[in-house]
Design goal:
This protein is α+β, with helices and mostly antiparallel strands. It is built from 18 helices and ten strands. Helix 1 (55-66) runs antiparallel to helix 5 (137-151).
Length: 533
């Protein structure tokens, strides 16, 4: 029910034609029976006059907004898969698959992602692009939830808490969409007030999108408590982190530094764990380094952690009941950039293992990369489902982001910026940055980019980082040139168009071209909408 109550009477389905429809949510049907003259009272529809009346109503509505950020929902019935699903549709997995960090053994379009072999006509990847872009409907759904809470008769102090979460969740989805596509269409309140009127929505401008993101996330920061009431709920630190990420994508580095300093001032609430691997363990659930996570429950649909199974080789015993799918590995070229003794690899990244037949599998046998089991063992893991939480944002990201921003904004390399990076390195068992790495701005930023890669591998931040540092396409072309030379592939070199994904043609066509393609794809043929099964 919590899922269905999102947006209550107006779960917006303006997909493709952008005609905002009214969705009436079915509830429970009660029959009032008596001895004579039976009468029926119908509670099958939820409207503003019978919902959003109590704190429970508000909680159910906001709980439903979290559902799209689930970890185990594969989609279906025209619904896009959850944002943190473990397959190609998942934000974290897709993001790292398109970088130097992660190779996928599954085949299909895996190589196309790793070598950026997608264009507007790339048929094998279009389903993922369609699924990702279709999440823009969430922005209308969340906005309607916000408006209904604002109109609720519930006490203001109670409303404030749920409004803060709803604003933050809308901003979180806004970040996800902007990172992949740039601005998306967003219905105004006037349009939402007339849900049966056909409106062909264009994409917002960057400036309009900035205003939307700031309005939602600054409201969230002002309204939310310092710390979450329960693991996985958004509080002030998470809202700050989402806006920080957006500012860094947009290049608003002065605003980003101010936010990073606000987060840095929350040390005490958040801190580095002494043991890196404990952050991603079952016992470490809710540890003080994690600013935002997706709680996982192997028995609850939509909340399972399938990442462990996705990385686990099919012939490697992890726990007594575990099942591996043999999907993702850490690419060898990336693995080889680690310094000897880096504790971030201990008990998490394996260059050999003993398989279920008793044979030792070595690096020679592991063609594409090292086994990467970042999420720790769950003794109760059944088949492919683990209970270990999926981490989204961590305090070490605050330290490295602040160091980067100090220098980007003209601050000194020596002193605070270097100390922040060294805190992260020292936790990994490494020495301080070298004199060469702190010699000038370029060297320092290059060192931070590498440090971020080593710290956040398989957390979905690498793509965003490489784009910000101007390396995403460069690194892709390095991989393309290498495999073309070594294996005789015929991959084409890519350009900055790949910093954003192309928008599927179905959204453009059904908007009567109100939605415009990302500029560098304009000379290419549109993607057609995939067949939906």
């Amino acid at each position: 029910i919590a899922q269905c109550l999102v947006g209550s009477e107006m779960c917006i389905r303006d997909r493709n034609i952008h005609n905002v429809h009214l969705l009436l949510i079915g509830g429970l049907l009660f029959l009032l029976t008596g001895c004579m003259d039976l009468e029926r009272e119908d509670f099958t529809e939820i409207y503003p006059d019978n919902f959003f009346k109590t704190e429970t109503d508000l909680k159910l509505a906001v709980d439903g907004l979290y559902y799209d950020f689930g970890t185990g929902d594969w989609g279906g019935n025209g619904k896009a898969p959850s944002v943190f699903i473990s397959d190609y549709n998942g934000y974290q997995t897709f993001s790292d698959m398109t970088t130097d960090v992660m190779w996928c053994n599954w085949g299909w379009q895996s190589d196309e992602y790793y070598f950026h072999q997608w264009t507007v006509t790339a048929g094998s990847v279009q389903s993922q692009f369609w699924n990702m872009f279709s999440h823009y409907n969430y922005l209308s759904k969340a906005r309607n939830t916000i408006r209904r809470i604002e109109e609720s008769p519930v006490k203001e102090d109670i409303k404030k808490k749920y409004l803060g979460e709803a604003h933050a969740l809308r901003g979180w989805m806004g970040l996800y969409l902007y990172d992949l596509f740039g601005p998306v269409p967003v219905a105004s309140d006037d349009i939402l007030d007339n849900p049966e009127t056909f409106v062909y929505l264009p994409r917002l401008t960057d400036e309009e999108y900035d205003a939307m993101m700031e309005e939602d996330l600054l409201n969230a920061i002002a309204m939310l408590p310092e710390m979450p009431e329960a693991r996985g709920r958004i509080a002030k630190g998470a809202a700050r982190m989402i806006l920080l990420k957006y500012y860094m994508i947009r290049g608003h580095f002065e605003k980003a530094e101010a936010l990073a300093r606000d987060l840095y001032a929350m040390e005490g609430n958040y801190t580095l764990q002494s043991d890196y691997s404990s952050i991603f363990s079952l016992a470490g659930a809710g540890n003080s380094e994690v600013i935002l996570q997706r709680p996982c429950n192997a028995t609850l649909y939509g909340s399972e952690n399938y990442l462990t199974a996705s990385f686990l080789p099919t012939d490697m015993l992890w726990t007594d009941k575990s099942t591996g799918w043999g999907g993702y590995v850490m690419a060898w070229d990336f693995y080889d950039t680690y310094e000897p003794g880096d504790k971030r690899l201990e008990n998490m990244v394996f260059t050999s293992y003993v398989n279920t037949s008793g044979k030792t599998v070595t690096r020679t046998d592991m063609k594409y990369g090292a086994v990467t089991l970042k999420y720790g063992k769950d003794p109760g893991m059944t088949d492919a489902k683990s209970n270990v939480d999926i981490v989204v944002y961590r305090y070490s990201d605050v330290l490295l982001s602040l160091a980067e921003l100090i220098v980007r904004n003209g601050g000194p390399i020596s002193g605070e910026a270097t100390r922040l990076v060294n805190r992260v390195r020292n936790r990994a068992g490494l020495g301080n940055l070298s004199a060469a790495q702190t010699a000038d701005t370029d060297a320092f930023l290059e060192a931070i980019l590498l440090e971020r890669g080593h710290e956040f591998y398989c957390e979905g931040l690498r793509r965003q980082d490489l784009i910000r540092f101007g390396k995403y396409v460069e690194y892709a072309n390095n991989r393309i040139n290498k495999i073309n030379a070594e294996e005789g592939r015929g991959y084409y070199n890519v350009n900055d168009s790949h910093n954003r994904l192309p928008i599927p043609a179905s959204f453009i066509d059904e908007s009567k071209s109100a939605i415009k393609q990302n500029p560098l794809y304009l000379s290419l043929i549109h993607i057609s909408e995939p067949t939906r099964h």
